[in-house]
Amino acid sequence: PVRVQGGTPRGREWRVDAGVSSQFVSALLLLAAAQDDGPIEVVVAGELASRPYVEMTLGMMRRCGIVCEDAGQRFLVHPAEPMSAVIAVEPDASAASYFLVAAAITGTRVRIRGLGAGSAQGDVGLANALERMGCGLAMSEDAIELEGRPLRGIEIDMETMPDVVLSLAIAAARAEGPTRITHVGNLRVKESDRLHAAATELERVGVRTEEGPDFLVIHPSTALRPAQIHTYDDHRVAMAFGLLQLITPGIELEDPSCVAKSFPTFWDELARLQQHLRV
């Protein structure tokens, strides 16, 4: 267990290593806004992983009247009492990724409302990645329509959208030619080592992979084989590999209930999708 005793933060400059996760920065930004006086400068030492999540935090703070200055690796926060605001909460782009990939690998069409070019979420970029792989894409400010077409492998930097790497990996397993995913080393410190999980479980279904410190190369297979997938108690591993049930008989998952962390009704939604595909 970890025991934390509260106190008053000291100093006007707070330094943080955010090379593994942007959540440390978001937490300090919110804490800085709640101080009695300021301004407080949050300084990122080294690289900032998953910057779009920090930008979402800054955007919401500004909507509530908090003045935040963004200088790349430095953020100056002027503490203030938050103002009330009416905020429309977007659908979760990470959760939507599974249905985009479902359309991509089954050659069907999906329309997602509430997400689009105007989204603050970096994970919306998966739709553009699937378009690069060959899918048809129509995107407005608040809607995405994607049509599955024959897929081709690509090379892609996914540093700004790590939560949808596993989703893209499933699409890559069905593409023509290899896919190389780079700058995703922070996946090794998520709920599981997701890079290793992706490589291991793709190999289990017959897909050859190359795994590096911060990259994954996927060599697709024209014939996936039945397998029991280990989920590593990781909701994203379970949901991504669950999509293979749409195209490959005999795919079973250990502990599918781990999806409850972020998407408790995922299996119900996937079953509805399977029924639609049968029709």
Summarize the structure.
The chain is 31% helix and 21% strand. The chain is α/β, with parallel strands linked by helices. The protein folds into two domains: 13-78, no CATH class; 93-278, Alpha-beta prism (UDP-n-acetylglucosamine1-carboxyvinyl-transferase, Chain).
Please outline the major beta sheet: 4 strands, mixed
Helix/strand structural class: alpha/beta
- CATH hierarchy: architecture of the largest domain: Alpha-beta prism
State the CATH superfamily name of the largest domain.
Enolpyruvate transferase domain
Number of strands: 13
Please tally the helical runs, counting DSSP H or I stretches of 4 or more residues. 8
Q: What value does the average pLDDT take?
A: 95
Question: What is the strand content?
Answer: 15-25%
What does this entry look like structurally?
- The structure is a single chain.
- The protein is built from 8 helices and 13 strands.
- It has 279 residues and is of the alpha/beta class.
- The protein has 2 domains: 13-78, no CATH class; 93-278, UDP-n-acetylglucosamine1-carboxyvinyl-transferase, Chain, CATH 3.65.10.10.
- It has a 4-stranded mixed sheet, with helices on one face.
- Strand 10 and strand 11 form a beta hairpin.
- The protein is globular, with a radius of gyration of 20 Å.
- The N and C termini lie far apart (51 Å).
